[in-house]
Description:
Blueprint: H1 4-7, H2 11-18, E1 29-35, E2 40-47, E3 54-61, H3 69-83, E4 88-97, H4 111-114, E5 119-123, H5 135-141, H6 150-163, H7 168-185, H8 191-198, H9 207-237, H10 243-250, H11 254-263, H12 270-279
Helix pairs in contact: 6-7, 9-11
Amino acid sequence: MRRDPIFYQSPTLLFDLIGSSPDNAGDYRFDSVAVKEPKFEIDGVFLPPESEPGTVYFCEVQFQKDEELYERLFGESLLYVYRNSARFSDWQAVVIYPSRSTEQSKVHPHRSLLNGEQVHRIYLDELGDVRSLPVPVAATVLTIIDETEAPEIARYLLARTEQEQFTPREKRDIIDIVTSIMVYKFSTLSQAEVREMLGLNLTEEPRAIREAKEEGREEGREVEAIALITRQLTRRLRQELSEEMRSRLATLPLPILEDLSEALLDFTTLADLEHWLATNR
């Protein structure tokens, strides 16, 4: 189950989890950032508006044990703040675990940060009963709820979302989070079955279902491209492609397939295709 995107869908969810938020919380945007020399990417970053310095939040969702998580998180985060010090007045880090057993064992070297005010460790199984939690926080706990209980809890959270005083944007974010979790939990069900399970009757489809449809369309385009290119190559090279070659073509992403559809017009032998694949991996 891919959990990271669920926690990154809304800045307000992050602030609800840590129990505090900046005055301009609604203006924060989620991003992935890169730091050069050495180059690395930090996937979970919530950036304040560029118009004024603010606090940058680094968010890490860790559902599997990583014994070097804190070394990487603090090293990359502090280097990013150093490279962009003019943009930020402060930094904070949020690490979300399903339980304490997932946290790395070696925490003593990082005690000053872990026990201070800048680092928030969230253990989902310690947040309490979902029915007593604020809806956005309860939605995150849904990720660790057993599949036998998840549908009932999800419907309960959606019902509370309708009853409580949320803005249209907040309501949409909560619905997106809940449906995303259920789509990932019940990946063998169709989109219609997930919507029926949750009792959803919306004018606008939840994000998880929209993304699933888009992924399906993308896969469909790749299948069509592979079939077309295979026919073109067969005619151009005047021979049937081997199963091994067909399998290699099937692994190519759509942008590479589009490049190949143009390049193959210059091929005359199978060696031309082999050379092109070797230089365009």
